[in-house]
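Cont'd.
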Amino acid sequence: MSGRHVRTVTGLRAEGQLGRIVLDWTPVPWDTVVDHYAVYGAPDAADVEVSPATLLTKTVYPRFVHGSLGGNARRFAYRVVTVDAAGARSRPSAPLAASSQVSVTSTGSPLAVVGRYDGKGLEFALSPNGYSRYPATFPNGVDFRVGTDAPGTGWSYLQPGPADSWAGRRTHTFRLRFDLTAAPAGEMWLAIWLIDSHATIPGSAVLDVNGTTVDRLRFEGGATRGSLEGDATVPGTRLRPSYLERPLPAGLFRPGENVLTLVKDEGSWIAWDAIGLFEV
Amino acid sequence: MTEPRLNRRTFLQLSGVSSAALALGVAAPAEALAAVEATAAGEHVPDGVFGLGVASGDPSTSSVVLWTRLAPQPLAPDGHGGMPPRPVPVRYEVATDESFRQVVRRGAAVASPELAHSVHPQVDRLEPGREYFYRFHVGRQVSPTGRTKTLPASADAVFRFATASCQAWYHGHFTAYRHLVAEDVDAVVFLGDYIYEYGITSSNLWRQGAAVTPEHGVEIQTLEQFRLRYSLFKTDPHLQAAHAAAPWIVTWDDHEVQNNYGADGSRYGVSPEHFVHLRAVGYRAFYENLPVSLSALPEGPDSTVYRRFGDGGLVRLHVLDTRQYRDPLPMDAADQNREDWTILGTDQEAWLYDGLATSPARWNVIANGVTVAAITTNRTDQWDGYPANRRRLLAAMQTTNNPVVLTGDIHRHVAAELKADFADPASATVGVELICTSIASDGDGAPTDAYTPDWVQHPYVKLYDGRRGYVHVTLTPEAMTSEFKIVPWVEADATAPLETVARFVTPAGAPGLERLP
């Protein structure tokens, strides 16, 4: 009811990460029945005016992942308002500002990229929900040649794993072939962006470059929604994107054809946003 | 039965404005009502406040809970139904005749914005096995008339009820309720999935002629979204008519919160620490939107919905909660076969087994969310995931008179005999399980489908049908007759006729399913 005191959240914290800023706060005690927390944000500012125009999300959780911020460092100011079961609103929390981290997709030079780093997987084969056709379409996994093949037919939106019965409960290998005119002089980075992954068993994949095993890539748990929808930028999306960027050892790449191989031999599927190699 | 009454102790436990407002949704003392009416005097309440209809539920042999939620604009995006943000007095009357010449109870409650302007008055001191009519008043507005009925006290009575579940509004019309309303039932037992949390988009909106605005297109998470989702489903006129036709006894399954959740565990990557916040709003909206007693009002993320109805005599109903207390889905066979693994939780198990063993009733009806019968070991969301708990349940069923399990969840009609030892299909039959198909979930369906072989491979499964409908049950001292009813389509419109695909009789004292022609 209007005029009643509704508790303001405390303990607002922020952590800038690749492509996102993670906010969390201390939930109000249970004796306040919370309808939702309203999170307000404004770019490139030290504070934000609480208004419908700056509302970023309504969430029942004491946490908000401000995602799909892209590869550049983005700075935002935030405030959080508690809305209770009667529709009454608290005073806004104190403001807090934070920045996301810059991505190698912004600072590096692309040498081989499949897809767009845009929070969407819609450009890929079988997207957004054609996983049941994966076994027939990609019986031997993906073998994609940059400059020749098209993402819409050559790169599956999902890479299954051995936990996926619909994909035969086996490992699945994706190969990315690309040509270099010369061995790269700078540091090479791999940038993998996912729009989502399996929530509880995203698993891992073995990364191999030109026949040399580099490492095992472990994926973040997502929301198990990316098998059915492909756009993590839709307001209210439940997709949970994740970002994996790392330098690769020197000397792996050579003039002529290079092959990067991902063998998904643990866990369930991942849903692609983009994959690429960048020289920094 | 579990005591839901707003007694003095309950009142004393409540404190502060918010708690008082909650309590006033049940019964408003005269002085409180006068204060609210004085405050509200002269303030306009929008027309059409009964847009979500009326309902009754949680019947005992002497009482029933009445329900309405004031919402002149049921689909207002903020979930408050177009009501002003202030308390509104609601008066009700209960009569023995439809024209309200013989009014036997009058009372009042306060509809507060904290509870989305819902009220849950409990009417006591009624006669057993008797039909009553009720209506609400808000200012000069009068609600539609509802019919309700107390449970029978006599062991010689006849008790007729229907079971229903899984009403994905977007998958089809609630034709089954149109037919159910025409039946002369004493109660409706609803077995879970009253709403679904999924976003409603062109890919799942199969209900022809329906359209939704963009706020319905995302998976629901906030209380306002849950309230709005209940409102959307309740806009179906046949659902409103079914609520107005008989008292409902309701339990939940998973979709009142999130698909396949268990306790504080989400399948979708929400941490337990965070998931309880979703559960809190899901349970809150359940209370606000259904005719359940005050005992189901959540405290934070916890709500007690397992409860018991019937004093003995012909029937006692044991209503279970197979979601809130379950151990996590088993990760492997070792988990699955642990002796201490439970789908009910320790307290509810003890409560159920004690209630079965001490029940004097002729029939002991257990309302339950997920399939008890052994089907396949990979159906771990059902009792198949908790075989040790199933053995304990089956043992407890042998301590009581004529146990019958009612189930929903699977969107299929299934009739099964429950065996003393499912590892030995030749073992004794200790009870029966009547699984009702969905009201609308999965759209039109078909008599058989890809899942049929999993079920009919077992000699104790006596029926499988994958179309929409409900189960009608008649209990007498001598026998239970169960009739499985379907409608051939639900997606195109609500005109489909009713068909009975199977009838079974279960004699008292001889558990089993004898198919009738």
